[in-house]
Every structure is written in structure tokens, then in C-alpha cells.
Design goal:
alpha+beta; Alpha-Beta Plaits; 2 domains; Pseudouridine synthase; 9-stranded mixed sheet
Length: 211
Amino acid sequence: MKDILIIDKPQGMTSHDVVDAVRRKFNIRKVGHCGTLDPMATGVLVILMNQATRLSARLCCDEKEYICRMTLGCATDTHDGTGNVTRALGTKGMTAQLVRDTIMSFKGRQKQIPPMISAKYHKGERLYKLARKGVVVDRQPVDIDIKDIDIISVGQDNAEFRVTCSKGTYIRTLCHDIGKRLGCGAYMDSLRRIRSGQFHIKDAFTLEAIQ
């Protein structure tokens, strides 16, 4: 446990950027992380150092907990706010109760198709690298488990919720799929991981504090 460091990853940095910062700060060669966070996401990033790097495979399988805010009425090709708009239908006639019911309908075990902007491999190449070349390939659906959903708020064109899920769940794709089921489109506007297995955001240090 002494070689495990919990970082509150800031927005705009990759998970690898954080690993590099820790490696430089403590002059440690063996540093890794559990559970990649997108650059736009913030929150719990479990950093493993020295002998603790051997725990990576086990800790990466732990469930995750997030707070997500999504925009309704519009879809993007990346399933988040960084992508290009592919549909803009608006939310006219959409009720808060319909949004709530639709979000809750995703609770439980299901299949999810990983997004093209992801670190998964296709014939030896990362999907996001293929996406940058304009290449779209068929992706096999994977088993995920949305263990719990707690809706925080529903607005005219947005919703915020807390979700607990299994390893390998893409929250931005969850938002995209919710939008498809609603028929109006949706994308992830912000994401904060507040727990990864036993490690909670209250145990995390900012990079500024580490420095």
C-alpha cells in the first residue's frame, strides 16, 4: 500500500501525463496506473509505483464510480463534447420523467460497443489512431454491468447522474446510447471519477500538492 498513490487527475492531462509527472517528481522508473481517464475527465487515478505495479491487473478489474453530466438533443462522433456534431435534434417535447426513466433503464448487465476513440486494439493498432485517419471499423460488443445509477438532476437540455459500473464501461458511450434510446441524441459533457475500487476521491492528492 505504501507504493500506491491516489491522484485527483486534472482536466486536460492524459493518464500517461500524470504517470510521467510522478516518475519525474520521485525519480522512480517503475510507475503505472489503473484505469485510464480521458483528458477531459477528472478524478481518481490510481498510481502504482515500484513493487505495487504488480497489482495492476487485479486493481484494474475493480468497479468504478463516476459523476457524469450529459447534454441532450445533440450527438457527436466521439460521444463527448470534444467531437464533431453528427445530430442536432433538440429536446422539444422531452419531459424530465422520460429522461429519468430512460437513464434508469440502463441499469444492469448489458452489451456495449466501444467507441472508435478508445485505446482498444484492432489488428494490432489502437482504435483512436485509426479514427484519426478517418477509418471506422466494426467493434465487437463487450459485457458491462451498470450496477447503480443515481440521478442528481434533469434540466431542459442536460442531465447529471452518479453511476457505479464494471471495468471497461465507457460512460460517454453510455450517454450516447441514452440519447439514442430517447431519440434526441446526447453526449457526455463532463466526467469525474469519484471512486476506483477501494480508493475514493477523498483520499486523492492534487498534482500541485504532490509537487
